[in-house]
Amino acid sequence: MPTIKTIDNIKIDIYSREHPPPHFHAKFSEYEELIVIETLETYAGKMPKVQRKKVNDWAADNKQFLMEIFNKLNPRP
To answer: What are the domain boundaries of the chain?
Structure first.
């Protein structure tokens, strides 16, 4: 279940068997940015500013949802 949300052609993905810190992938065209859920800081990659703002606005209001999905797909032993 990678894609959990699509915002104006920007895919928000969370994968299983991921590494810490809890993060999600934002994908738009040829761009991909990994964003830490707790801080919404960039972990890796880059995205155009307009699309990054849309992702940030949505993610700021949905941190709990993102953490729930991340924890469900990546249970701690």
So the answer is: 3-73
